[in-house]
Every structure is written in structure tokens, then in C-alpha cells.
Design brief:
Blueprint lengths: L11 E6 L3 H17 L4 E6 L3 H4 L5 H4 L7 H9 L4 E5 L11 E5 L8 E5 L13 E3 L3 H10 L4 E3 L5 H8 L6 E5 H6 L8 E3 L13 E6 L2 H7 L4 H17 L7 E8 L2 E9 L6 E8 L4 H16 L16 E6 L1 H13 L3 E6 L1 E4 L15 E4 L5 H13 L3 E5 L1 H8 L7 E3 L3 H11 L5 E7 L5 H8 L3 E12 L5 H8 L3 E6 L2 H11 L10 E4 L2 H9 L6 E2 L5 H12 L8
Parallel strand pairs: 1-2, 1-3, 6-7, 6-8, 14-15, 14-22, 17-18, 17-20, 18-19, 20-21, 22-23, 23-24
Antiparallel strand pairs: 3-10, 4-10, 5-8, 5-9, 11-12, 12-13, 16-21
Length: 564
């Protein structure tokens, strides 16, 4: 859960960092830059142990992509224990916790990957069936694309540990980021620099990210931002978000300036590396985000990316969907997804409560139409609905779920808006709503679009609070642990309030969802997701369990192979 942090305590600021030699070297450079930019302040480092530092044995293909090198630092930022955090930018997940932002990208070394071989030769010159060490699936699939005879062996440890292993007979070569080798002063160990056109680096590779709480502390870090670096890195991270991949997904991106704008080199592969695609696009500042989103969608289609957190084909292990919202919102979706072979988890983000005032006390005497926008309203308006129908009022509802909820009590809607509130407004206006009295029974958080449109068409509309949306204060610890494990491949959001609650409940754990596909029940929820800096990978065509499930399938790729 997010903690409201204090403002700057004094003129002495703590800069959080991992304890590896490379992390300390990067943080030392950042502190020197900050000290020059703010001579009236004092900066000192605070070493924080991360999950990735403690777990030296698990392959990064199992634990990567969910903030294992960053979440502990983010937690310290949120609590106010540190004021800034320094990361290798490529380790920062594509989704940040509420209240935090990457305030500066102060430096970027050579973004390329490097081959280091005890044989002193290039990748193509290595002996037959070379054993090559890497912990990155992105590197592994690109190695195999260039050297199909290679044997990939897991390689973990700090940079000095990996360089020592490169000298042993256990490996013929290893692949590392040029930036890390250079910052440690060991560039002479590199036997080949791998160009970005045939060996695309990880998004943001070579860059340093300074993260801060939004506000004054972020402004302090902004002084050391290098605009040309941040422009390029933000484009690369946009591609990462659009794909939905964390560092377990074989994904690469590198942006650089051109005389006319920017160019982006992108690479994407399926989980097993069977299909690898590359592309290159020219970008201009006005259309870059849309162009990158379209590129990501096309490349996903071309690879038919297999969304599986641990690299296991979905036919063997169900893909896990994290459903958010109230129990009523997810009930039908859970049944539909389980029928299709998904595993489901439910994070209750909202609960439904009674309206603050009895609905019966607010209904006008003469009513022509009653509009119900959600099945959540049914328990609180049932008695009033029966009375209104007996008095001659007609019923209009949003969605089949709402229709089913009132049909159980013998109430038959005259109009069902399958495309949401906007569709329902269209249907009522087409019927001729001018001069009619309409009662709209909605949530306490409902948008005014439906009422505004009906009033614009000549109706007299009274909006009545039919139920309240109550945010859940805390989440089950066992469920949080499962989310942190990186098991979730899909996240569903069924209302704007669920979006807000998701970010509040998860806090720094939100980073664990960086590799997931985010699916919205409709355009209103999708807008809320974008407003809260969450990606949108698919939108259901209508607010039904079947349509929602179809959108999930679309976001995952048509070759998933689940039972239906």
C-alpha cells in the first residue's frame, strides 16, 4: 500500500542504490552531478539489498521483469527512507508505482551488447557449438538467430563474477552490456561490439535512471537530466509498454536521433525464440507514441507472442489472469475464463455499498423511462423498479449482465445497450426521448455523459445514486505474494474506480505486472487507465464476459491454443 512520504527533511538527501560494484559506480557519478547542480545540498548514498541481489541462483527468465532489482528501492522511496534512487534504466519495469517517477536520465554509455570470449574472436568465429553464457532471453534468441549451433548456458552474478567465468573453460563466450563493462574500466576485455541492427539491445540499455517521489525531490533530479538521452529512452520504454513485456520477454529497442527526428530499431520474439522479427521506423515528435503502439501491435501479430511468465507453453500451463473489481463484476468473467482454460485470481479493488439516501425517496411521481447502468444497482433499486413498472415506466439497461439481474425478478427491459452507456443513449434517442421524464439510477462515481446526452435530446433527467463504490483498503498478503512472483500474464479492469484502487492497493508491487497484458472492459475504463499511466493492450467490444474474454484472447495472440 502507498505511504504518504514526508517532504525533504533537510538539506541532506539520501540516494538509494544497490550494493554491486557497478551500481555503486553509477550512483557515485549521479551524486557528483547532483552536487554540482545543487551546491547548497548534500547527497549521500544508502545501500539497499534487492531481491535480485539476494537470489543468485534463480534464472532471470524466472524472476526477471517484475522489479527484482528495483522494487526494494521503490519501497524505500515511497516510505520516505530515501529521497532518490539510482537504477540501471533497463532494470526499471515499464509500470511505476503511484507517487513515483523517473525524474532524470543523466547519462548513457554505449547501448550495444558485447561479446567477451577467451578465444579472442567474434561471434561468427567461435568454434562449432560454442557454449555462450547469458541470463537474458533476448540475448539468447538473437545469439541463436546468428549462430544456430550455439549452446546457451545460464549466467548470473555481478559483472566481475561473469567476467571471471568468461575466462573459464565452462564458456566459450559471454554476452554483456557494453555500458557495464565500460563503467568498470574493462573495455579492453571486449572481443566484439554487436551492432544494434543485428543484435538489438534491451530498451534503455546503457542509461542510468534517477527515480524520485513526484514533487520537489523530482525537480532536484531533473537538473541533471540529459534531454537527448531521456528522449531516446522514453521512446524505447514506450515500445516496451506497448508490447507489455518485462525483461523475461525477448524484446529489444534502440532509438537514436536523425536529422529529421528519431529512428527506432525494434526486435521481438516469441517465448521460445522460434519466431524473431525486427523492424525500423522513422519517428517525429507529434506522432511517435501512436506509431510505436502500431509497430508493437504489428510485431506482436507477426510473432504471435506466447504470453507465459516462465516461458512454458500455455498448452502445458494455464495463463493466469488477475481480475480486478468487485465480486459481482468478476463472477461471470471468471466462469468464462476458466471455461476457456485460464487460471484466475481476484484482487478485490472495490466493494458495493448502499446509497446514502433511499432510492424510493428520490423518484419523481411521473416517470417515463428508468435507466439502470449496472447490475450493482439491482439489490438497492429492486422494490422501486417493480413499483415504477407497475405505474407504466419502461426500463432501459446497460449490458446483458444488468438485464439478467433484473430479469430474475420478472422485470423485462425494453432496451438493452450492449455497447455501454453511449450505445444505450443512442438507442433511447432513436426511439424519441424528447419531452420524456427519465430516472437514471447510477453509481456515486458515474460520469455524466449518459444524462447529458439524454438532456441534450430534450429529456428531463433525474440522476439518482443507486449504489456506492467503496474502495478496498488492503489486499490479502498471500495474493500480493502471488502477484509479486510474476505469475500474472493478464490484468483485467472493469471500471475507472478499479484502476484507482489497483494502483493504491499494490504500491511498489505494481511493477510485478509490467510483463502483463492490460485489458479494459470499455473505452471509459481505458481512458482511466491511460490517465493513471497504465498501458492498454486490448479493449472489450462490449461489456459482457464473452467479449471481455475475447479481448483477452486477442491481446495474447491467436495461437494460444486454449480449449474453448
Amino acid at each position: 500500500m502507498n505511504v504518504s512520504p514526508p517532504s525533504i527533511r533537510s538539506d541532506q538527501l539520501l540516494v538509494g542504490t544497490r550494493g554491486s560494484a557497478l551500481a555503486l559506480a553509477q550512483t557515485g557519478m549521479v551524486i557528483r552531478l547532483l552536487q554540482i547542480a545543487h551546491p547548497d545540498l548534500t547527497f549521500s548514498q544508502s545501500i539497499v539489498s534487492t531481491e535480485g541481489d539476494r537470489d543468485k541462483t534463480s534464472p532471470l527468465t524466472m524472476i526477471g521483469g517484475r522489479g527484482v532489482f528495483t522494487s526494494a528501492l521503490q519501497e524505500r522511496l515511497l516510505s520516505g527512507d530515501i529521497d532518490l534512487a539510482v537504477h540501471s534504466a533497463k532494470d526499471v519495469p515499464s509500470i511505476s508505482p503511484s507517487g513515483l517517477e523517473i525524474a532524470a536520465f543523466p547519462d548513457r554509455e554505449d547501448p550495444r551488447d558485447a561479446l567477451i570470449s577467451r578465444h579472442g574472436v567474434s561471434l561468427q568465429e567461435l568454434p562449432r557449438q560454442p557454449v555462450i553464457g547469458t541470463s537474458s532471453r533476448r540475448r539468447a534468441v538473437q545469439i541463436l538467430a546468428l549462430r544456430p549451433d550455439a549452446i546457451i548456458r545460464e549466467l548470473r552474478g555481478n559483472i566481475d563474477t561473469r567476467l571471471r567465468k568468461a575466462e573459464s573453460h565452462e564458456y566459450d563466450a559471454i554476452i554483456l552490456a557494453v555500458a557495464g563493462v565500460t563503467r568498470m574500466g574493462w573495455t579492453d576485455r571486449i572481443t566484439e561490439f554487436l551492432d544494434v541492427e543485428r543484435f538489438t539491445p534491451s530498451p534503455a540499455q546503457g542509461a542510468i535512471a534517477v527515480e524520485a517521489r513526484i514533487g520537489d525531490v523530482a525537480d532536484i533530479a531533473l537538473a541533471i537530466d540529459q534531454r537527448h538521452v531521456s528522449n531516446a529512452v522514453r521512446l524505447e520504454r514506450r515500445f516496451l509498454r506497448a508490447v507489455g513485456g518485462g525483461c523475461t520477454t525477448p524484446i529489444g529497442a534502440h532509438a537514436r536521433a536523425t536529422p529529421s527526428g528519431m529512428v527506432l530499431h525494434a526486435m521481438l520474439a516469441d517465448d521460445r525464440g522460434d519466431r524473431l522479427v525486427r523492424d525500423r521506423i522513422e519517428l517525429n515528435p507529434l506522432t511517435s507514441d501512436d506509431a510505436i503502439d502500431q509497430l508493437a501491435a504489428q510485431m506482436l501479430s507477426d510473432t504471435r507472442l506466447q504470453w507465459s511468465t516462465h516461458g512454458v507453453k500455455p498448452e502445458r500451463q494455464p495463463v493466469t489472469v488477475l481480475m480486478t473489481g468487485s465480486s459481482l463484476q468478476v463472477h461471470g468473467l471468471a466462469s468464462e475464463l476458466e471455461r476457456r482454460g485460464f487460471e484466475t485470481l481476484h484482487l478485490e479493488t472495490i466493494r458495493i455499498g448502499a446509497p446514502t439516501t433511499s432510492v424510493a425517496d428520490l423518484i419523481p411521481r411521473a416517470t417515463d423511462w428508468v435507466v439502470i447502468t449496472s447490475p450493482n444497482a439491482e439489490p438497492y433499486v429492486r422494490a422501486s423498479l417493480i413499483g415504477l413498472v407497475e405505474s407504466g415506466a419502461r426500463l432501459a439497461v446497460v449490458g446483458q449482465r444488468t438485464a439478467s439481474a433484473i430479469q430474475r425478478h420478472g422485470l423485462v427491459p425494453d432496451v438493452i445497450g450492449e455497447g455501454g452507456a453511449s450505445s444505450l443513449a443512442d438507442q433511447l434517442i432513436d426511439r424519441g426521448i424528447d419531452g420524456a421524464t427519465v430516472v437514471a439510477m447510477v453509481s456515486d462515481r458515474a460520469h455524466s455523459e449518459l444524462a447529458d446526452r439524454l438532456q441534450g435530446a430534450g429529456a428531463s433527467v433525474q440522476v439518482i445514486e443507486a449504489y456506492r463504490t467503496v474502495p478496498v483498503a488492503s489486499a490479502d498478503r498471500e495474493l500480493i505474494d502471488r502477484i509479486e512472483s510474476g505469475v500474472c500474464s493478464v490484468v483485467t479492469l472493469a471500471s475507472p474506480s478499479a484502476v484507482e484502487s489497483l494502483k493504491h492497493l499494490l504500491g511498489s508491487t505494481l511493477a510485478a505486472l509490467s510483463g502483463a497484458s492490460f485489458v479494459a472492459i470499455g473505452e471509459t475504463t481505458a481512458k482511466a487507465m491511460r490517465d493513471h499511466d497504465l498501458p492498454v493492450h486490448a479493449i472489450a467490444q462490449s461489456p459482457t464476459a464473452e467479449s471481455f474474454a475475447d479481448a483477452i484472447m486477442t491481446s495474447l495472440g491467436s495461437s494460444i491454443g486454449f480449449r474453448t
